[in-house]
Each structure stands twice: as C-alpha cells, then as structure tokens.
Amino acid sequence: MSIKVNNLTFKYMVGTPFEKTALDNVSFEIKDGEFIGLIGHTGSGKSTLIQHLNGLLKPTSGEIYIDDECITAKGVDLKRIRQLVGLVFQYPEHQLFEETVFKDVSYGPKNLGLDEEEIESRVKWALSIVGIDYDKYKDVSPFDLSGGQKRRVAIAGVLAMQPKVLILDEPTAGLDPKGRDEILQNIKNLHKKSKMTIILVSHSMDDVAELADKLIVMYRGKNIIQGTPKEVFRNVETLESIGLAVPQVKYLVQSLNKKGFNLNEDIITVSEA
Ligand code: ADP
C-alpha cells in the first residue's frame, strides 16, 4: 500500500503552557512495497509521526492517505486501518501476556474471528518469518524465552494480522549485537518475500542504511532530508550537525580518496562495510 502525508502538523497539549509542536508541516510519499528508514534523534517526532499513520493520533492539521483513502477524514473505520497498518511499538515484548507462544501470536487473528485452520497457518507463517521454530516453541511460555526471542514473538503477533504496511519503532533497542542482527535479518527477509511496505524507525543510521530503499530524516518535527541512502549521505555535514553518524564506509572512501585513491562509492556499497 502507498502512503501520502500532506502538510501534517501535530501539537501536544494544545492551549496549555506545555504546548509542543511535535510535527511541523511534514509531507512525503511512500510507494507500495517500499522499505523506508525513518531516522532522527530522540525527540525529533518519529513516534508521533508513526502513530498518525495508523490512526492512533489525529493531526492538528494536514491529511494522510493510505492508497487513495484519506484516513484522517471523519467517520473512517480506524479498526480496519489498524489491521492494514501494523505497528510494532518499542519494546513490544512488554505486551506479551498469554501462557504460550501460540496463544500470544494467535491473539489478534482470533479477534478477527478467523477459523482455526487459518489462525494456525498465520501463526506458523508469522513465526517462520521471525525465525522461531513452531513445533519447538508453540507450547512454551513466552516468559521462558530470551530477550531477542521474546521480541521476535511479539513482532510475529503483529505479522499474524497480515498487515499491508508494517511499522517497527526501534525494533533493535536494547538487544545485544546477535539479537539485533537476527531481527534486522528477519525484517530484510520479510520484505524480500512479501513486498510489504515497511517503515523501520531508528536513531541509528547503521540499522537502516543497508536495508532501506529510502530514508526520511526527521529533525525537530520536520522531515529535513529524504531520498535514497546514497542521496541522504551526501548531506554529511547536516547529518553530523543533528547527531546522525553516517556509516563508517563513507568516511573510509572519503579519506582514502583524499590520500590519492580514486574509489567510487557506487561500487563500494554500505553492505560491504
Ligand atoms: P521520537 O520518537 O523521535 O523520539 P517523539 O515523537 O516521541 O520523538 O517526540 C516528539 C516531541 O514531542 C518531543 O519533543 C517530545 O518531548 C514531545 N512529546 C512526545 N510525546 C509527548 C506527550 N505525550 N506529551 C507531550 N509531549 C510529547
């Protein structure tokens, strides 16, 4: 599904001394099947923005279209929108609560009123995407799993709803390097297999640069830079000034070129870093 955001502004606590403009006239378009990295420092407006994309927050002004439907208009069925746009919150494992992995992942599909067979097939599919062995873990308590496994089960719970757009808010936060790599690999495989539209939110370029087709850089509520990772990295100085480090390979290529080498960034890709 495609997403279009038009002049989106959002203010918290309007009319109080604490009024805060969290999104300031944000506009962008995401095409069907694109993998987007939404990046910016803490407080730049990323979480506020993604909560608008599935109708959890209502804009102070501006509109959002999912395909051609304006989801910010009055009378839109937000339950349906939340099925289409799956949102994985930060630390989603805090929301695990069922006795078994199967029960947890099947919770959403069950609420949709699907039959047993369909529910089971969705749970199997979702767990396979996140690399959790169905037979081995379906009857295990989620609370007996490792941190990384818990998080992957929680992500499977959103996947089991088979959303058309998947948004993940800092999915690697607090994981060790192995857990981080596993989650990023899962997301990469999911995009390859399903062609789902994916928005990966992060404050780390390293997490998103390799995976995303396009990056949207947020700063103080505005989307100040957007484009392919390569286009975005051309703004090294701006990125550095807002605390976003460009992946190391860029520096390596630049410093080697300064020393008289003639390396082409088009050939040396970020994934080879
Ligand atoms: P990010 O996800 O990039 O860390 P947020 O969207 O959480 O940024 O925050 C954007 C701005 O809005 C910040 O200045 C933050 O302090 C403020 N903010 C976020 N949530 C609330 C809230 N519930 N009430 C008031 N201000 C908020």
From TrEMBL:
Residues 3-245 form the ABC transporter domain. Keywords: ATP-binding, Cell membrane, Membrane, Nucleotide-binding, Translocase, Transport. InterPro entries: AAA+_ATPase, ABC_transporter-like_ATP-bd, ABC_transporter-like_CS, ABC_transpr_CbiO/EcfA_su, ECF_ABC_transporter_ATP-bd, EcfA2, P-loop_NTPase. CDD domains: ABC_cobalt_CbiO_domain1. Pfam families: ABC_tran. GO terms for cellular component: ATP-binding cassette (ABC) transporter complex. Signal peptide: none annotated. PROSITE patterns: ABC_TRANSPORTER_1, ABC_TRANSPORTER_2. Its EC number is 7.-.-.-. Belongs to the ABC transporter superfamily. Energy-coupling factor EcfA family. This is Energy-coupling factor transporter ATP-binding protein EcfA2. It comes from Caloramator proteoclasticus DSM 10124.
